[in-house]
Write a structure and sequence with these properties.
The protein is an alpha+beta fold. Helices cover about 45% and strands about 20% of the residues. It is an enzyme of class 2 (transferase).
Length: about 600
Amino acid sequence: MDDMLKEFVVEALDLATNVEEHLLSLERNPGDMNTLNAVFRSFHTIKGGAGFMNLSAMVSACHLTENLFDALRTGQVAVTPEAIEAALEASGFVADQLTALNNGVPPEQLSTMPKALEAMLTDAIESKGVSKKAAAPATPQVAATAPEPVAVSTSTPSANNTDGVDWEAYYRAVTPAGTLPEPVATAVATAPKAPSAKEEHEAVKSSLSSTDVKHTAPAKEESIRIDAVKLNVLLEVAGESVQAANQAAVLLEKLSQFKFDGQAAPLMAALTETLTRASRYSTELQRATLATRMQPVGRLFQKFPRLVRELARDLGKEVDLNIEGAETEVDRVVVDSLYDPLVHMLRNALDHGIETAEERLASNKTARSTISLKAWQEASSVMIEVSDDGKGMDAQRLRDKAISKGLINAHDARTDDEAFQLVFLPGFSTKEVASSVSGRGVGMDVVKTAVERHRGAIRISSELGKGTTFLIRLPIELSIVPTMLVRTDGASLALPMATVQRVVELPETFESVGGQPVLRDLGRPLPVKSLGKVLGYMPSSERVGIVIAAPNPYILSVDSVDGTADLVIKPLTCISTPGITGTARSAEGELVLVTSLSFLIDGCKVREMMTA
């Protein structure tokens, strides 16, 4: 794909996504003229670029949709569900074509415009007596009786254009707004004389040389597009530079313990000042590079309203999707990887959680249900919540189902919180027969795997008859994680600061509840768990406790705490170790094992599930 086509595809994909969002908004507020005009402009812009790239199918779809919205915004056609449905189908077709181009499909191999889509758009245009001829640009006909004045736009194809392509319209579409004067509509009673090609050429030449154009400065570009691979390389180099600067600072601190006399003293002072400056600049470079990878989650969220609308329609349910916190920023990699998990969660909520209108009315609920998709920042994490006001989850039913499938034994998942986590087991489903939406026991397993791959955690809360909430916690930045460095059995480990509440001193003896050591913290009894024992290290004297923030708080015992550090994490790729998500280098150059966020939130449990 050449650079010009690639640039067009990127810009047009953004427009197509916004069009979809506008159409769903228009379905709720049919009289919103701003939205009508915005959709019209988007299709017009895409059509112009597609014509320039000789993408005929896309041009045809955009042209018909543009005609439809021209009729809608002028009041010739009412904003009906049929019109919105036709526009959504056209938007989907355009998006599919753009996605195919983005995936490397040559333009000449793209599919043609479906006849069904053409008929749907034509029917929508003609729905209120607006003829196809009136909606499509054509040369006005002379009526037998006294004709009404017909507005002829300057964008009407010239009679001399043998290929039938409206080149001037395409030219205007790819020219920055405000550069060319607006076309003047001329009222005529009979067919006007078509201008010659020479006259058109002179008109365009004259407009480009006008005073207004001369004094119109080109728009200043506020942003540029950079290949993601190049950005990742830059981030990795920036991280390594910070690590090298930190190691140099540690070496300098050790050197300062020696006495330097004579000419060595000013050299040491200069070296100290230089390394301090280098460390500050490398840290700023790293932060600035990280900022370039941050993107609002709204870029992801805006893809879901149409998905929910269509799936709800297929299932015969009435559902509204409420989105909050779309401006929350998170690492681009997280944004890209969350699409599939959120799709599974929304499909699960629609199929399992939301009742039909009749069932809701029988339960004294409104016939129309609500699914909420929220995002917000909490310390160094981003929180994403998917909640519904459906029927909730039955913990006992989940236990019985998992036991019957042989996924757990009768003594597992005793609490409701543990029972809710069973939905993430591979092969688990409460449906007896799989459908096109759910029932195969793979969707929620995919969700948990995807979240934990990015050092995140997911929790479920539910109330029978009230609804269910899925809460995802993810690090805002994937490459750098604020951690607390601890030691156990001589090994250095890092705990994500997102789970650390405070550090406490442990006594030599503990109270015991059910054979489990317990320590009172702020008046509440918390179980004490040995990090070394859980991870398989040799028993040691652990006298330092770290209170872990989890749904069921507990205290993690370690040998010592070495401080805090922002570590550059390298994921484990060749091996999989329970509880360990990656490695890093400390400022002293020592290898550090980074514990998993979900592992800590789950209470340091290493589960060995039964196989079916």
